[in-house]
Amino acid sequence: MTVHNISWTRYLPRILQEWLTGRHQLQMALDNTGWLLFERMLRIVAGLVIGAWVARYLGPSQFGELAYVISFLAFFQVVADLQADGFIIRDITQEREEASIILGTVLWLRLGIAVLSWLAAVVFMLVLHPKDFQLILLTAIVGATMVFRTSDTIDYWFQSQSQSKRTVTAKLFAFLLSSCVRIALLIFKAPLIAFAGVMCFECAVAALALSVAYHRFPTKTPWKATIVQAKTLLSLCWPFIISSLMITVFLKIDQIMLKEMLGERQLGIFAAALPISQVWTVIPTTLVVSLAPFVARKFSQDEALYRDALVKIFRFFALMSTLGAVCTAAISPWLINLMYGAQYQYSAVILSVHVFTNILIFQGIAQDLWVINKNVRRVTLIATFSAAVVGVSCNMILIKKFGPLGAVFSYMLATSASVVIVPCLLRRDLLDLYKRAFFGIAKA
Fold it and tell me: Which of 212, 270, 276, 333 is most buried, judging by how many CB atoms fall within 10 Å of its CB?
């Protein structure tokens, strides 16, 4: 008997179809992951192409202005999102009868915090740049996405029921529709404000599409909010909000400081290189999903087998990221010219250096397997806080000296602190794993 529960399984080899027969939970998990991966890959490819077209049309200064607003709003978005997705999904899955109360409380809590965060962002931008009306208007328009993104609460329900394809379908519809609008704006030479507006439009369409999808697959009872549940959620969320704010400082502060110190044009040149460099991270994030159960089994079986598995993963990720970085750096001048044009020529220099940070990022993603199995999240929190401090300090010195390239050097140092230096100082066992992994590379 072959597998027919999920339509995509018919395309698998017969031996895999037979292995999946009767494993309904595994089929649902694979189907759920497959939909998410499909959406991610489509967004990356389409986003790179259309994003490069937008950057080319706007030019470094206007593109930098938009990048600055997006980076600025990221700090407020962290608070609006509550940062407790995994716990919310877990509770919905375990307590299906309470799902409507949990979801209703999350929705109203997120909506209230999102509105306050939106208003706070506009006020802060007004204080920072009181005479720059366009910057304030961009913040107000793009910031409205925080309110529409509260509809992602529906996705918690879908994820808990392995129905992520409903979310993917809704968001993919919004993305494709907004992409068509972006192309139209490019053809008709629309102003910068219009491109900010289409970001808000995409989130609004996604919210509407998710609402329609929910009505086709609702909870048993209507959603409602309770004060008790709200207090529970807030007490659960605040440590993760603080941790995520530190991560956002680590990831986004370079763009904020670049704009404030050197202006929009230099930020635009810097920001143009990032999507190409970061596209490589899809590989380790996808692989880790498949490797996590394997490593967990090794951990439960034998400590030596577990450590051997991690060493091989560290080594493989290092080789893979180095190869990708070298290839990208070699073609960066041609790639930047093809995608962005001559006005972004210096972005090739940024890209050829920034892409080597992926070697550290790949290790950080692999290191998550160690963090989860050893339950050492405190190490991650300390490392992230250290990276934020290093990032801000180094940017203040290196941006003045090297311009946008200084921001890349600062990011490298901050990533080194987050992934290698601080964790290895705190945990000797992790240092031993890295020594084994990289000694093996040197020996080979």
Answer: 270
Reduced to 3 states, what is the DSSP secondary structure of residue 433?
helix
Q: What phi, psi does 131 have (nearest 5°)?
A: -100, -5
Other C-beta atoms closer than 10 Å to the C-beta of 326 total 12
Instruction: For residue 66, give the H/E element and its range.
Output: helix 24-80
Query: Rounded distance, CA 122 to CA 3, Å?
Result: 53
User: Tokens representing 354?
Assistant: 């920034």
Residue 307 sits at the vertex; the CA angle it makes with 443 and 288, to the nearest 5 degrees, is: 95
Per this entry, what is the length of the chain?
444
pLDDT of 161-214, one tens digit each? 777 788 888 998 999 999 999 999 999 999 999 999 999 999 999 999 999 999
129 Cα distance to chain centroid: 28
Q: Is 316 exposed, middle or buried (0-12, 13-18, 19+ CB in 10 A)?
A: middle
3-state secondary structure 141-162: HHHCHHHHHHHHHHHHHHHHCC
- Please tell me the pTM assigned to this model: 0.86
Task: Quote the pLDDT of residue 271.
Answer: 96
Distance CA 135, CA 129 (A): 8
**Predicted local confidence at residue 16, as pLDDT:** 53
* Cβ count near 389 (within 10 Å): 15
Name the residue among 145, 153, 143 with its Cα closest to residue 178.
145
Distance, in Å, from the CA atom of 316 to the CA atom of 282, rounded to the nearest integer, reads: 15
CA gap 146, 142 in Å, rounded: 8
Amino acid at 391: G
